[in-house]
Structures are given as C-alpha cells and as structure tokens.
Amino acid sequence: MKHVVTGLKLAVLSLMASGALAGADSMEAAAGKQVFSHHCHACHSEDPSRNTFGPSLIGVYERKAGVLPRFAYSTALKESGLIWSEENLRRWVADNEKLVPGTRMRHVSITDVAEQNYLIAFLKTLK
C-alpha cells in the first residue's frame, strides 16, 4: 500500500511541476485517477455507455445505489437505499461487504484515508 501512495505523490508532484494541475481539487483528482486505475478500472468503466464487469462510474457521486440501467446489481445493493455521498463512498471502498452484506462486488479494502480522499475527488469529476 505504501508504494501506491508514494507513487501517487510522485505523479501529483510531476503534474504540478509540468503546470498541468492548478489547485488542490485537481491535484487530488489526478491522484484519484491513479487510485482508480490501480483498484477500480479492471471492473469499472469511465464510459457512460459501457458497463464492464461492474457498472460504469460516470455520475456515481450523489447517485442512488443500484439504479444504473443495463446492469444487474445484487438485490442487496438495489435494496440498500444508499446514496453515493462522500461518507458512503468512503465506507464502501473501505469495506463494501460490511456496508452492504450480500453485495456481489469483491472486497477492495481501500482503508488509507488519503487514497480514499483522492479516489472520491476523482469520482466527483466523472460526470
């Protein structure tokens, strides 16, 4: 886990030095793209028209859980009543099986608060 955070810091510093980033929000989102690539991209798409093994995460922030068309969510997630707020996204990536017992998503366990912050900042940009 430490090497991932170190790599994220280096990626953000590199982007800052190149002038590609301006402001804390874009720095966190850039680091979050790295977290997404490492933990989420194998199963989730950034394309709104394409679900993969998991649903597309375009527009996930503040969306009700289990409602994206063309994806077969577990009954547990569809009936959870969750809204993907910052708090619920943080709880989900830390221990999704604890938050929604019976979910079909495999457990990813992103417990590092900095990585959670980065990932959530990135997910907020997916509109």
Distance between the termini: 28 Å
- What is the beta-strand fraction? under 5%
Category by helix and strand content: mainly alpha
CATH architecture: Orthogonal Bundle
Averaged pLDDT:
86
Q: What is the helix fraction of residues, given as a range? A: 40-55%
Main β-sheet description = none
Form type: globular
Number of strand elements? 0
List the domain count as a whole number: 1
Which regions contain 5 or more consecutive residues with pLDDT less than 50? 17-21
Q: In sequence order, what are the helices and strands, one letter per element? A: HHHHH
CATH topology: Cytochrome Bc1 Complex, Chain D, domain 2
Total count of helical runs of at least 4 residues: 5
Radius of gyration: 15 Å
CATH superfamily: Cytochrome c-like domain
State the CATH class: Mainly Alpha
What does this structure look like?
The protein has 127 residues and is mostly helical. The protein has a single domain (2-125), classed as Cytochrome c-like domain (Cytochrome Bc1 Complex, Chain D, domain 2, Orthogonal Bundle). Helix content is 50%, strand content 0%. α1 crosses α2, α2 packs across α5 and α4 (86-99) crosses α5 (113-125). It is globular and about 40 Å long. Residues 17-21 have low confidence and may be disordered.
